[in-house]
DNA sequence: ATTACTAGGTATCGAGTAC
DNA sequence: TGTACTCGATACCTAGTAA
């Protein structure tokens, strides 16, 4: 029923604390920070800082461990995600829309793409929002482990939204599209909402990318992905 | 007497509004944003949003102009500075210490450097905090206009602090130093606190950089500046 | 020392509304 | 339409103080 509980927005002071922790390496190792010092750093009392830290703990942004005297704080992935999103927001202001380029290898799909791209619920959205009716098949590109991290940051960008829907008694999830430059026709990267941290990304276009680019499984391919 | 009035810290909501304005180009052109829409964007009422905008105006972060119906908002340099500082804070978390590289041309100093670098008040600080006693003369590098912007961002970085002092009945201002890589001996960029947006930056080292690098006025030179 | 509770004062919010 | 005021209600902060 409920995939995401209503998450009360974090206050500015709480985000500040997350930033301080991240700056001290709190994203990968527990960091000592007393509520008093936390309060001094953000300009509030020890009591208020402590409340913020308790709230951050309860909301799942930090995990606290108590030593004999002082607590240690470790950021959760949720917090790192939030900070990265903030970072990207600023980055976009000063550096413009983001893009990422990498080299991958063409890999065979599981045939799933064809099935999904045939669903009318998706087709109408693609046609409206992407400007073309997609060829019913995706070009799958395998990402090397060293590029996984930077490609993964794409999910924080603003993209073209494809909504989920219900049809034929089952649920089809949503996805987000990003303009992709593969050296051929206009195409888009698709990131399903429910992705499994795969090392394969999928591209769609109005025509068969395999044919248009004259590539086959195992070929290397240069890819650029842009923010929408 | 008072160089900087006590500036009450901006609230999270106010910073959010600045971000929204910056994202709409409000840093260089007035942007239409009604208090109602502002409120919706940050999740508060029209009244609260309006109060925030009034406060931002009064504090000198935005300038408002009123048309027939809707107000237009333009960010001041103060606001852009604040956002850039935030950006850099996040950048440092995710990308590590910043650095910037550019190509400039060696230019003749005004001989001022020699005078300042002879002041004992400066010499003791340089020796202590930089690890060497500077040669009494600076290497001046002219920055091309296209690189001015990125070089200018250096002033937001964390650097090595040199404090101002009083001596011989006059005041000597403070400055901040940043490690510089010029292809020769260890050297530092110096940014005086009271800088005049010059297109010339100054480097110091333990020896004469002119001699060590065998450069003369007008020569091109590759420079890298790092965060401390 | 810490973290964290209660009490009470104040800052801030949104509704209503004037302009 | 807009912006911006007054006015209760309440959310939040700090001080005091347990644990």
Give an overview of the whole structure.
The structure is a homodimer of 228-residue chains. Chain A is α+β, with helices and mostly antiparallel strands and 228 residues long. Chain A has 2 domains: 12-95, Arc Repressor Mutant, subunit A (Orthogonal Bundle), CATH 1.10.10; 99-226, Elongation Factor Tu (Ef-tu), domain 3. Chain A has 8 helices and 12 strands. The first copy, chain A, has helices at 12-23, 35-42, 46-58, 77-95, 112-117, 120-130, 145-152, 209-213; strands at residues 31-32, 62-66, 71-75, 99-107, 139-143, 160-162, 165-167, 170-172, 175-181, 187-192, 200-205, 220-226. In chain A, the strands form 3 sheets. In chain A, strands 4-5-11-10-9-12 form a 6-stranded antiparallel β-barrel. Chain A has a 3-stranded antiparallel sheet with strand order 1-3-2. In chain A, strand 10 and strand 11 form a beta hairpin. In chain A, helix 2 (35-42) packs across helix 3 (46-58). The structure holds a DNA duplex (19 and 19 nucleotides).
The tally of domains of chain A stands at: 2
Q: Which strand order does the major sheet of chain A show?
A: 4-5-11-10-9-12
- Helix % of chain A is 25-40%
Hey, roughly how much beta strand do the residues of chain A contain? Answer: 25-35%
Rounded average pLDDT of chain A = 90
- Number of extended strands of chain A: 12
In the CATH scheme, the class of the largest domain in chain A would be Mainly Beta
Q: Which terms would index this structure?
A:
2 domains, DNA-binding, Arc Repressor Mutant, subunit A, Elongation Factor Tu (Ef-tu), domain 3, homodimer, 6-stranded antiparallel β-barrel, 3-stranded antiparallel beta sheet, 228 residues, alpha+beta, 27% strand, 8 helices
């Amino acid at each position: 029923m409920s995939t995401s509980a209503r998450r009360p927005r974090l206050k500015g002071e709480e985000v500040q604390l997350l930033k301080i922790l991240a700056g001290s390496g709190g994203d990968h190792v527990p960091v000592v920070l007393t509520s008093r010092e936390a309060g001094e750093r953000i300009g509030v009392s020890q009591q208020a800082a402590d409340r913020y830290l308790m709230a951050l703990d309860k909301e799942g942004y930090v995990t606290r461990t108590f030593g004999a005297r002082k607590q240690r704080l470790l950021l959760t992935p949720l917090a790192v995600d939030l900070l990265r999103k903030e970072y990207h927001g600023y980055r976009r202001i000063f550096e413009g829309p983001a893009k990422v380029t990498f080299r991958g290898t063409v890999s065979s799909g599981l045939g799933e793409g064809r099935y999904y791209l045939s669903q009318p619920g998706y087709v109408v959205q693609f046609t409206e929002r992407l400007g073309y009716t997609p060829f019913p098949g995706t070009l799958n590109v395998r990402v090397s482990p060293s590029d996984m991290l930077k490609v993964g940051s794409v999910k924080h960008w603003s993209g073209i939204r494809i909504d989920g829907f219900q049809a034929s008694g089952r649920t089809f999830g949503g996805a987000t599209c990003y303009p992709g430059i593969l050296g051929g026709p206009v195409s888009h990267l698709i990131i399903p909402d429910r992705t499994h941290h795969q090392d394969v990304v999928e591209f769609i276009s109005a025509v068969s990318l395999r044919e248009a680019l004259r590539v086959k499984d195992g070929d290397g391919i240069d890819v650029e992905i842009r923010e929408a």
